[in-house]
Design brief:
The protein has 3 helices and 7 strands, in the order ααββαβββββ. It has 178 residues and is α+β, with helices and mostly antiparallel strands. Strands 1, 2, 3, 4, 5, 6 and 7 form a 7-stranded antiparallel sheet that branches. Strand 6 and strand 7 form a beta hairpin. The N and C termini lie far apart (58 Å).
């Protein structure tokens, strides 16, 4: 009799563990689709300063890459970096004196799948301005920059910042700080 109880308990535990192993991956996959941990962005400025040298030294960076957490199984031939950073004091005044700016903001909130961690980030009630002279489009890449005068914040979206192949140690390779 004791042997049957022990076998019955063993089978029950085995079924419970087996069911748990099926539920856990499904729950994990669902959580990856519906949520992203807050603060899951890069903070290092060196790759940004390399990709956007006209902006000079940057601080308070929050940015993501199209090659971050790409568990969709699709290789991306292009690198896109998107985010926010603060310009050095006086840099925006220098840029506005040298280039023509217009009042124009980004088309909307960060909308690509990889930009999800940045939603809700950035200056409060920004008054975006943009200089099409500082943007670039073509030759395998593009750069779009928007600036908030009140906070000296730049919002950027850069496709293939280092050309088609990327740069060694850039955002697609060594991520640096998160």
């Amino acid at each position: 009799m004791e042997r049957r109880k022990l076998i019955g308990v063993g089978v029950g535990v085995g079924i419970g563990i087996g069911a748990g192993l099926v539920v856990l991956p499904a729950r994990w996959a669902l959580s990856r689709v519906t949520s992203w941990p807050e603060g899951d962005w890069h903070t290092d400025t060196a790759p940004l300063e390399q990709a956007l040298p006209a902006l000079g030294p940057l601080t308070d960076a929050k940015w993501v890459s199209s090659r971050d957490a790409d568990d969709r199984g699709l290789p991306s031939p292009e690198l896109v970096i998107s985010g926010l950073a603060r310009l050095a004091p006086g840099k925006l005044a220098e840029l506005t004196a040298a280039h023509t700016f217009v009042s124009e903001g980004p088309a909307g909130e960060f909308s690509s799948w990889f930009e999800k961690p940045l939603k809700g980030q950035g200056p409060r009630d920004p008054q975006w301005i943009r200089s099409h002279e500082l943007d670039r489009d073509g030759a395998g890449g593009s750069t779009s920059l928007w600036f908030d005068r009140r906070s000296d914040t730049v919002r950027f979206r850069v496709r293939n910042p280092y050309g088609q192949q990327g740069a060694p140690g850039g955002p697609e390779g060594g991520h640096g700080s998160r």
